[in-house]
Amino acid sequence: MATTSIAPYADLYLCVSGERLGASSREQMPVCNPATGAVIGYLPAATGDDVRHALEAAARGYARWRAVPPHARARILHTAATLVRERQESIARTMTLEQGKVIAESRLEVAAAADIFDWAAEEGRRAYGRVVPSRSAKIRQIVLREPVGPVAACTPWNFPALTPARKLAGALGAGCSIVIKPAEETPATAIALLEALLDAGVEPDAVSVVFGDPARVFEMLAASPVIRKISFTGSTAVGKRIARLAAGGVKRLTLELGGHAPVIVTARADVERAALLGVAAKFRNAGQVCVAPSRFIVDGAVYDEFVERFEAAALQMRVGDGLDESVQMGPLANARRGVAVEALVRDAAEHGATIRRGVVPEGGFFFAPTVVRDVTVAARALNEEPFGPIAPIVRAEGFDAAVEEANRLPYGLAAYAFTGSLEESIALSDRVETGMLGINHFGISLAEIPFGGVKESGYGSEGGSETLDAYLVTKSVTMT
Q1: CA–CA distance, 44 with 13 (Å, rounded to integer)
Q2: Residue 201 in contact with residue 79, Cβ under 8 Å?
Q3: What is the pLDDT of residue 24?
Q4: What pLDDT score was predicted for residue 25?
Q5: Which three-class secondary structure state does DSSP give residue 67?
Q6: Distances (CA, A) of 259 to 338, 448, 474
Q7: pLDDT one-digit tens code per residue, 279-298
Q8: Taking 50 as the threshold, does the pLDDT of residue 1 lie above it?
Q9: What CATH architecture is 261-446?
Q10: HSE value, Cβ hemisphere, 13 Å, CA-based, for 364
């Protein structure tokens, strides 16, 4: 099938047992450039046989990969990290073409994915057990940490390198095999990670990549008795369905689901810093970030100053094709996001909010940076994850009221706060219900610290010393 493209993109394929599976008789799915709306490639969708073959490979690959000594697995993952860094520019360009984010953000994401491979390599070398003193001199008691088994993973389109890297690195670092279904909107970035892993020497049966109808393909994977661990990043609604499916097979499960990250700005905050950093974090990846600040809760004493500074920076942002180095925000990843975000803006206006918008070019899936001030808690934007470039700002009368509003929703993935008070920082650390909290900055996603949420934002962590926990089981051995 012919592909229309104004720029080179990438070959798209499934990969099972190291074999590239192309179009052949498979259904093909178009992949678009969000900056233009043009089709840039066609992705083959996995058949039922493809999924079954991937599961068979995962069973074989688990037996072989777990037998590779941890030091050898670490060398391979370190090599993969080096290859990803060497290919950074190519992978970043591919990411921007298929996802839309600005090229500088894509480069940073690729670098972060390489860091994750390096981190998991070293954590795999330190998956320690322990010796437990026994009650008898004739008995030795030891505790072993072993890989859980074959893994099924599913990742979204908003971070097409970072999120797959977390799951690939965690599983492979622990000695598990993995079948991953990345997002169909952004397939080439995940394929590039796979190529780095295979080129580095990962056992081909230990890692497969499949695409297709998400519900059919991933539920087929997750329901298989071959799979012993499921890792899912996506919406809360789908996560609940996956949790029910995992429960049916009593499978280990990691869920990183939706959020609605509050940003508390207290009366003691550096308002200028909070506003400027808030704009940069809010409109990164056009707001399509699970940990993006999605509601600013500002003390009434500094509310007007914060709004003035925030609007001045947000409405001047340059929006355009992410391949343009001067652009500050790219398009939304697909057309349906624009419809959903615009509905939230209209609803806020109907609830009395004041709406201010920036400027965007014509064509593509662009959406203007939008500031929604004086919005009431009845508005959908303060209750549903916006996942787009809109910034609701609400007034809070005092510290306690701000914390109460931050904890009001059933989500708890990420939260942020700005204050110049140590006392308030400690209180925020204790009282805000979240899996991750950034105080006076937004840097909460790094390889060396855990990433995960609480409440309806999921459970389990990826990264940090917890990197391998979800992929390891504990075995107690006593001998005499």
Answers
A1: 6
A2: yes
A3: 80
A4: 84
A5: coil
A6: 19, 22, 31
A7: 999 999 999 999 999 999 99
A8: no
A9: 3-Layer(aba) Sandwich (3.40)
A10: 23
Give me the pLDDT at residue 7, please.
46
* pLDDT for position 326: 97
Q: Which two tokens stand for residue 56?
A: 């068979």
**Residue 362's Cα: distance from chain center in Å?**
29
Run of H or E residues at 479: strand 472-479
Distance CA(64)–CA(177), nearest Å, equals: 9
Q: Where are the domains of the chain?
A: 14-257+458-479, 261-446
Q: What is the pTM of this model?
A: 0.95
What's the pLDDT tens digit per position in 417-443? 999 999 999 999 999 999 999 999 999
In contact, 311 and 319? CB cutoff 8 Å: no
Fold for the domain defined by 14-257+458-479 = Aldehyde Dehydrogenase; Chain A, domain 1 (3.40.605)
Q: Please give the C-alpha separations between residue 442 and each of 1, 128, 273, 371, 425, in angstroms, as whole numbers.
A: 44, 32, 12, 19, 15
Residues in the chain: 480
181/183 Cα distance (integer angstroms): 7
User: Tokens 């330190």 map to which residue?
Assistant: 126
On whether the CB atoms of residues 469 and 461 are closer than 8 A, the answer is yes
Nearest to 79 by CA among 244, 200, 204: 200
Residue 232 region by backbone torsions, left for phi larger than 0, else alpha for psi between -120 and 50, else beta:
beta
Active site residues: 256, 290
For residue 39, the cross-strand partners are: 32
Q: Which of 228, 232, 246 is nearest to 181 (CA)?
A: 232
CA dist., res. 464 & res. 255, Å (int): 16
Q: What whole-number distance in Å separates Cα of residue 228 and Cα of residue 149?
A: 6
Enclosing H/E stretch for 431: helix 422-431
Instruction: Count CB atoms within 10 A of the CB of residue 375.
Output: 26
Render the burial of 189-198: b for 16+ CB within 10 Å, e for the rest. Answer: bbbbbbbbbb
Q: Which residues make beta-bridge pairs with 436?
A: 414
At 98-151, the pLDDT tens digits run 999 999 999 999 999 999 999 999 999 999 999 999 999 999 999 999 999 999
29: left (phi over 0), alpha (psi -120 to 50) or beta: beta
Q: Taking residues 77-93, what's their average pLDDT?
A: 98
What phi and psi, each to the nearest 5 degrees, are found at residue 281? -75, -40
List the one residue out of 199, 190, 256, 234 whose CA is nearest residue 31: 190
- Tell me, what amino acid is at 163? T
Cα-based torsion angle of the residue sequence 267, 272, 276, 277 in order, rounded to the nearest 10 degrees: -50
